[in-house]
Each structure stands twice: as C-alpha cells, then as structure tokens.
Amino acid sequence: MDKSDLEILSNVLCDKDGFKFVLLLLDKLGAFDRGINPNLSDKQIFMTLGKREKGLWLLDNIYEANPEKYTELLKERRKIYATGK
What we know:
Layout: H1 3-14, H2 16-29, H3 42-65, H4 67-83
Helix pairs in contact: 1-2, 1-3, 2-3, 3-4
C-alpha cells in the first residue's frame, strides 16, 4: 500500500464500525488461524493458504498504517477468542 492507502486504512481503523469490520475481515481471511486441516483436499488447502496470505498482508499493512490499532486488534481478537464472543 502507498502512503495515501495507509492513511485511509488508519482512518477506517479509527472508526468504531470500521475497526469491527476489519476484525471480521481478518477472521474470515484466516489471518489468525494456525495450521491446516490435513483432511482438506489439495485444492482446499491452497485456497485456505491464499486467503490467509491476503489476511497476513492486511495485518502487515495495519501495523504500518497504525501500530496502536494493530495492537488493539490483537487484544480484541484475543478477548473474542477467550470468551467465544
């Protein structure tokens, strides 16, 4: 992402609903997942890895755009994971 894209991303993260949406998007992309289900077909594994790669790309850009919001995202994700909500 270039500087103006990072600024837009930072603005989205500073909005309450934008923050929640980015968290939802990261979850759907599998950015927080670990490992691969060995029961999946090769095609499903490659699709999962491709989605996860996009999620990790977004996480990297979030850190570059706004390190404080990056940390907040990780804390919120941990809280959701711990409570199941």
